[in-house]
Each structure stands twice: as C-alpha cells, then as structure tokens.
User: What shape does this take?
Amino acid sequence: MAEEQNQEPVMSPEEAASAQFQIQKLYTKDVSLELPNAPQIFQETGQADVKMTLSQRVEELGENVHEVVLTVTVTATVGERTAYLVEVAQAGIFLIAGFNDQTHHAVINTMCPGTLFPYARQTISGLVNDGGFPPLTLQPVNFEQLYAQRMQQLANEQQQGAAGQQGDEEIVAAEFQTDD
Assistant: This one.
C-alpha cells in the first residue's frame, strides 16, 4: 500500500524551488468547421448527439521549451446525419524546467492541456454559433484524471507484455513516447 502512495510525482524542496512552468505564447494553430449536410440539416428536428475527442502533440523546441498542441474535435449528429464537425488545434509554447522526469511528464500532460482547453472551448463555441446552431457549452475536462487513467492503462499493458506478450511491449513504448 505504501508503494502505491509513492507513485505520485514527488519533488524535493530543492526541485520545487528551481521548478519553472511558464507560458510563453498561446495561439490557435488550426481551425475547421464543416457543415456537410447544410442547408438540409437545419430542417431536421430532434436533439443533436454531440461527441468530443481530444488529442495532444508535443514538440521540443529547445532546452526546456515545448510546443504543446491540443486538438479538440467536436462532432454533432442529428439522427444519421452529421450536423457539424468542428476541430480546433490550440497551441502553446511552454517553458518547463527544474522538474524530475516523472513530474515533467505529468506537467506536459496535465497543466499544458489544462491551460489550452479553455481557449479551444471558447473558439469551438463561437464557431458552432457562427455556423447557425444553438450555443454549445463544452464541460471542463479533468486532465489530471485522464492522465492518471492513461498511466494506469499503460502500466497494465506493460504488465501483460511482461507476462509473455512480447509483441505488445514495443507498441506500449511507442504509445507512451507519443504522449510526451
């Protein structure tokens, strides 16, 4: 039980004093709004089924400087027809220094997308409204919880791979590397 508690990213007081998380730039990298069934979709009745997916890409720009791109895709369907598809790639340049590897990984996968999401959510809301649809309010996302779930999933996959599924080990390593 004590071993589980030690799995949280812990920093020494020296690391905490030298740790830096700084937003250098926030920007919208790409925006897309598609209304594939317009104008007929405006004649449809019924409640739209709205689905959201998230993905993240990280690129190292220099020592301790990273570009993080959070892509939020929202698809609304009415019946069998797509009402709209909105995709926003919200990006930021972040200075992240003085953290141990585990904490650094957690910061990139929690604090960075947590910073970017409200901007993407605002852009998506405006695009949906400008597309002629009722206002869309996306709920906040708990990136810390998503990160914890993903790390647990990777740990489970690695345990299964160590149990004799040799082919899965490479996939797990590649998936893990793309998250950072």
About this structure: The first helix runs from residue 2 to 5.
